[in-house]
Amino acid sequence: MPGVLVLGGYGAFGRRLCRLLAGSPEIPVFVAGRRLDAARAACRELGLAEHAAVALDRQLAGEASAVLRRLRPAVVVDAAGPFQGRDYGFAAQVAALGIHVVDLADDRTYVTGIGGLDAPARAAGVLVTSGASTVPALSVAVVDYLREGLESVESIDVGISPGHRGPRGEATVRAVLANCGKSIPAVAPAHRTVRQGWGDLTRHRYPRPVGARWLSNVDVPDIALLPARCPGVATITLRAGLELSVLHLGLSLASQLVALGWVRSLEPATGLCRAIAAALNFAGSDAGAMHVTLVGRRGAARLARHWTLVAEAGDGPFVPASAASAIAKRLCAAAGYAPLDVRGARPCVGLLSLEDLVRELRGRAIRTVMSETRLAGG
Q1: CB 103 within 8 Å of CB 93
Q2: Percent of the chain predicted with pLDDT > 90
């Protein structure tokens, strides 16, 4: 059976993705990246053969094509961020070889622009999908589930707070800092005012052992994608947070330097921020959480539906890997998985159900709870 090549397979999320893919042993898995030694180490950890380690640099188009032509994987999953400011050259190159492309991007511009590859992807008979991660793949799948049976949706609130001891790859930290203090564009009618990245502090209480966490605005693809899926929605809030209050509040304060125009970006502080976070590992935990709250109407009733995910024992990083795992297995017709026949280029929404995603997380220290409450005014 043709395999799956994971670019960035030894990184924070790529490594978890490879472990999830290994759960379908009939699918060959290739761990790829610029550092062959790191790929080999990951293969040893995952119990994969040494030949599954692959040196591949997406910036070297000729060499990358030669590697892909030699291995002929069915799917390439790009888990090597950051995606901010990146073009679609690598994705187009892979698709032209007749190979499906899946990525873990959560950058709004990159994910929503992937449709520009639709015509060549269809011509090549492949799927090219961007955003197979916590946002927008999981978050939108949860919204789709919660809005079932409702006649209208008034508001959507999404929040994510990982455990502090989780992996902090350079690409992940750089992506967070890149949006701090920057304007998040209004998307009428969902957003009536422009918001600021890492602004609007709010406190959300998650189930134990996570507890109360600070959350702030983030610029993610859902901002642009949800209004079309929920016509008439008046309010969409998407926030993320750091477990340690001192770090979250400090970053929120630092973001004001960008908002005021005193510095262009916090990206140059990536190394410093990672060092500070590492020094504070003793104060954090390995428990994280995510929530989605949707308010809508069913007949005369005004309802609030809540979905919460809690991850413990360091299993949180499997969550952003779950969508790519499910799609790759379906594209490879893995045992027990329905084939995925969609072709063309599109954001990773509507391809997977919430059940598909939760299935990938079974056996992990991850649980979800749902509830519904009736609100005044309905």
Answers
A1: no
A2: 88
Distance CA 265, CA 295 (A): 35
Q: How many other C-beta atoms can be found within 10 angstroms of the C-beta atom of residue 209? A: 12
Q: Are residues 115 and 201 in the same domain?
A: no
C-beta of residue 126 within 8 angstroms of C-beta of residue 120: no
What's the token pair of residue 64? 């990358």
| End-to-end CA separation in angstroms for the chain | 54
- Domain harbouring 176, CATH code: 3.30.360.10
Average pLDDT, the chain: 94
- With 0.70 as the threshold, say if the pTM is over it: yes
Both 287 and 301 in one domain: the answer is yes
Residue 145 has pLDDT above 90, yes or no: yes
Residue-wise pLDDT for 32-65, tens only, equals 999 999 999 999 999 999 899 999 998 888 899 9
Amino acid at 228: A
Q: How far apart are the C-alpha atoms of 100 and 94, rounded to whole Å?
A: 7
CATH value at residue 48 = 3.40.50.720
For residues 255 and 333, membership in a common domain is answered with no
